Amino acid sequence: MDHPECPVLSSSLSGYLKNNLAPTADDIVRTSILKEGPVTELRSVEELVIEAQNSLELLMKRRESLQTTLYRCDTILSPSRRVPDDIWREIFIRCLPSHRNPILSFVEAPLLLTHVCSIWRSISLSTPQIWNRIHIPLFQIFRDPIWGIPPPYLDNPDIHDLQFRLQMRSRQVREWLRRSGSLPLSITVSNPSGESSTTEYHAHLLDSIMEFSGRFRNLELMVMDSHQLYARCLRLTLSRLPMLRDLTVYSIPKTDTGSTAQWYDKGLFIHPNLRRLTIGYLPLSTPPAIEIFPLPTNWRNLDYLSINSAIPLHWAREILIHCHALVEISIRINDATSSNQIAFGDDHIIIPRLTTFSVLDDCSDASRLYDSIQVPGLHALQCYGNSRVPLISMPHFFRLLPRVLGLRKLTINPRVFTKESALQCFRLAPSITHLSLGRQQDYNVSLLPSHSSSPEVMEILATVYAYNTTLLPNLEILEAYGVMMADKTFLDLMIARFDPTRSGVARLKKVSIRFHRVKQMDVSRQIEYHAKLVGVDIDLHLSYLQRNTQKGLSPSFGLRNQPMYLFTS
Predict the structure, then answer these.
(1) What is the DSSP string of 192-244?
(2) Whether residue 51 is found in the same domain as residue 141
């Protein structure tokens, strides 16, 4: 905006500001005379500005000095200086990851805590509770003659750096575990993509780990295809593992033909204090079949057992009979035969302490197993079939439901249910408060057939049957994965569950749905509105497939920069 006192605007010279015409000789003289006054006044104003800027700079420096003084005083008076070391230790313990063991990295606790300040470093190094868990990766082995060449004959800086870092890792592991004092240890040894051969660096690292085997409480051996490493771990005797209670083994290699002791006769698996056991894959016999072995006596004391290999139905029954003290079990059963078949008995299987039962059922008929199981304290049941075709008959685990009166959580595969079988399932389990239709790990395009019945299973949750009774009247948590139901249908289902006229029905408090399609309409606000009408602050999570629906409209869609057939002449 032009200044209102500008003499140019109040004269006839202002016309030149609106065009590109050359000024006349008289106008040039008039303009030159008009400049003289502003030039003199500008010099005076600039001097005043410089004087004001100097004064402002002095005030800014003074303000900065005062702020620095106040900052230093606040630093001295900081509440963190008066926090007792015991409180810091409790905070540091809660900084550790809860779902896995900490890693050898300065990007997370506990190593991160040692690089904040000297006080934190001192406290963390004197807190054994943050150093008694560790994840130890064994570097991937690649087959190359370079591992057999003496260091003086190597001139590859990358290999020299690798060797140095591998040596340092052994020292880091030893120092980490020493900081844990005398506490029980939780150790994960992992090499998910290694080859079977090992190097001296592996031996040094294992030496560093085994030095502390007397304090192993939780041990995870997540090592693939490395028989030498497994043999080293499996040779541990009971005297070297006095505190072992939790063992996880990714896969068990087949015992050598000349060996007299089998893997299930060795220290790790026969430890009398063992309470939790997880086995990924059992060894196979020849011809390929699960090798049935005598169950160790100490397995009778297990609280938790998980076997990921599919085992024959008759052997699953023997495991349930043998491990009668279980609190939680996860198994996979099928119709496969074993190398040494066992007759299937008819005695009842009583597991009084069992609260969680997970079974992946691929049997053609497992009804005899479910008929014989007595689990009065069962709270969580996961029965999952892998069949890609909906069942015609009722699933086998239905035989168990009438005898489980305190069931709270049920997980099923909705794609193997018909609408009628799902309706019968929910009628048999009215006590459940948590229903999971599918599992998150199965959310994959290849696992979702076009004839999925999950929409029908979802829709019947709003069904009212005889005597005006709502299905699953105690339901508070609903999970579903791979859902194809339309958003409008899902909204109607939610509104029905929040119908204020339905008395004696629990309200959904948490809903997590993963749709296997793009979003059709926003239903979140309406669901939250109806939930609030009945006094529920619902925890709602809805996710959809993210697809570029405009991709096909691009002018370059399908354009190729190269010929489709590269070998044409």
Answers:
(1) TT--S---HHHHHHHHHHHTTGGGEEEEEEEE-S-HHHHHHHHT--GGG-TT-
(2) no
The vertex-264 CA angle with 381 and 318, nearest 5°, equals: 40
140 and 266 assigned to the same domain: yes
Residue 126 maps to a domain:
no
Q: Please report whether residue 331 resides in a domain.
A: no
How many other β-carbons are positioned within 10 Å of the β-carbon of residue 315?
Answer: 22
Q: Are residues 229 and 140 in the same domain?
A: yes
pLDDT, tens digit (0-9, with 9 covering 90-100), for 124-157 = 999 999 999 999 887 655 444 444 544 554 455 5
Asked if the structure places residue 211 within a domain, the reply is yes
- Tally the C-alpha atoms within 13 A of residue 453's C-alpha that lie toward its C-beta: 20
| Domain count across the chain | 2
Query: Which residues span the domain enclosing 213?
Result: 131-274
Per-residue pLDDT tens for 501-541? Answer: 877 788 999 999 998 888 999 999 999 999 999 999 999 99
Same domain, 270 and 142: yes
188 contacts 136 by C-beta, under 8 angstroms: yes
Question: Residue 335 and residue 365: Cα distance in Å, rounded?
Answer: 8
Asked whether residue 409 is assigned to any structural domain, the reply reads: no
**DSSP structure class, residue 486:** -
Whole-number Cα distances in Å, 418 to 366, 454, 455, 490 = 19, 9, 10, 19
Q: Which of 370, 361, 357 is nearest to 326 (CA)?
A: 357
Helix (H) or strand (E) holding 71: helix 25-76
Which of 281, 290, 283, 335 is CA-nearest to residue 308? 281
SS3 (DSSP) at 315: helix
- Tell me the per-residue pLDDT of 48-74, one tens digit each, with 9 for 90 and over: 999 999 999 999 999 999 999 999 999
Q: What is the DSSP string of 239-280?
A: GG-TT--EEEEEE-PPPPTT-SS-GGGSTTTS-TT--EEEEE
